[in-house]
């Protein structure tokens, strides 16, 4: 090992085909003692003041046990990003592997529409910072706490997250900590209410349509527990969403463990009740005794129960879950978006027609009152009416 490569991290998730002879040794060629030695020889920050010099902090948008998430604006490109920063110095601490794991997994996965996009990572004073795309809709957990998601929306969550899982699994990686707070929402820019601050009348038009404009893209984030299927080193995630076989040390079907986590996530969001951390209910949910939710169809209840099947080999795969009925519902969601746009146009046209009629009526009244035959300027009257 050369002096230069001794200062490089060994990313255990990089496929063999992407490793070049000039890069660090392959993960399987490096024993644990060598990895430990390399990890102790950390570089200090490549750019110690990058957060302050390259970004403007807008506000804190999240906080966990080990880190905070900041809404930041890049000074150069003017775009908004989410930057995750460790609360304490992670270099050499017990949480170091989790933070590095997240960076390694994101770097290997690259870009996918249903996985939170990763841009870069660096250290400052032994704190690790990770730059992500800003998911402006918050988390699924936050959304479920304020809104009741119907079956149609739950199917969109299912479809989007399954697409993200399929991509992660196709890279021989397993998430291992899928839950509502790790699923993020990116608002569809085409479905946002127009910000016409100078025109309260048009604002009221779009304000009335807001219930139909909650179209979002759901994305998987927080890859701190990701492990490789080739060489699994399982770091158990949240016990509320963890499959029973994982706690029993059975790692023979890790893909299926992610399916279980998604199934119980959907159940929690639909049921609007927090999941237990232990006790009889915890075991019942893992023994095939999933309560039937009357607010959902039998089809969707059966699907959730199958995803939470006690036998991991009998759970559906990410491919089989995307059945024709689910895809049809997704297409219906797209149709809803088109219908929403048509309704916007119809409402605006109706509003415009009424405005013209009001202007005409106003002009006639003015003529009668003033006894004038000359037509008043339509534009000035139009805006005068709108400002009322």
UniProtKB/TrEMBL annotation:
SUPFAM superfamilies: Protein kinase-like (PK-like). The keyword Coiled coil applies. SMART domains: S_TKc (SM00220). ATP binds at residue 85. It holds the Pfam family Pkinase. Keywords: ATP-binding, Coiled coil, Kinase, Nucleotide-binding, Serine/threonine-protein kinase, Transferase. The keyword rRNA processing does not apply. One of its GO terms (molecular function) is ATP binding. This is Wee1-like protein kinase. GO terms for cellular component: cytoplasm; nucleus. Belongs to the protein kinase superfamily. Ser/Thr protein kinase family. GCN2 subfamily. Residues 338-365 form a coiled coil. Residues 55-336 form the Protein kinase domain. It comes from the Eukaryota.
């Amino acid at each position: 090992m050369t002096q230069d490569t001794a200062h490089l991290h060994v990313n255990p998730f990089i496929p063999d085909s992407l490793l070049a002879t000039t890069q660090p040794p392959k993960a399987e060629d490096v024993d644990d003692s060598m990895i430990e030695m390399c990890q102790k020889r950390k570089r200090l920050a490549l750019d110690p003041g990058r957060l302050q010099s390259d970004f403007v902090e807008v506000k804190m948008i999240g906080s966990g046990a080990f880190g905070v998430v900041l809404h930041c604006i890049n000074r150069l490109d003017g775009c908004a990003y989410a930057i995750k920063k460790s609360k304490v110095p992670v270099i050499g601490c017990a949480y170091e592997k989790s933070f590095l794991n997240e960076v390694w997994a994101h770097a290997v996965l690259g870009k996918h529409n249903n996985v939170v996009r990763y841009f870069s990572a660096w250290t400052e004073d032994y704190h690790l910072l990770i730059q992500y795309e800003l998911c402006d809709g918050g988390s699924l957990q936050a959304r479920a706490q304020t809104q009741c998601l119907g079956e149609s929306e739950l199917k969109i969550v299912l479809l989007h997250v399954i697409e993200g899982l399929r991509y992660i699994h196709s890279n021989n990686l397993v998430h291992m900590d899928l839950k509502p707070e790790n699923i993020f929402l990116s608002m569809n820019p085409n479905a946002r209410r127009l910000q016409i601050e100078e025109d309260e009348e048009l604002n009221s038009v779009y304000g009335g349509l807001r219930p139909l404009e909650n179209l979002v893209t759901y994305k998987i984030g927080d890859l701190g527990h990701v492990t490789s299927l080739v060489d699994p080193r399982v770091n158990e995630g949240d016990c509320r969403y963890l499959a029973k076989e994982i706690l029993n040390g059975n790692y023979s079907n890790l893909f299926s463990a992610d399916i279980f986590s998604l199934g119980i996530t959907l159940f929690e969001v639909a049921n609007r009740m927090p999941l237990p951390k232990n006790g009889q209910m915890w075991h019942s949910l893992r023994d095939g005794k999933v309560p039937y939710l009357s607010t959902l169809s039998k089809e969707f209840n059966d699907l959730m129960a199958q995803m939470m099947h006690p036998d991991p080999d009998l759970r559906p795969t990410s491919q089989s879950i995307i059945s024709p009925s689910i895809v049809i519902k997704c297409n219906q969601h797209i149709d809803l978006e088109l219908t929403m746009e048509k309704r916007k146009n119809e409402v605006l046209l109706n509003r415009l027609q009424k405005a013209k009629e009001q202007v005409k009526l106003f002009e006639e009244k003015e003529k009668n009152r003033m006894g004038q035959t000359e037509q008043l300027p339509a534009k000035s009257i139009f805006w005068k009416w709108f400002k009322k």
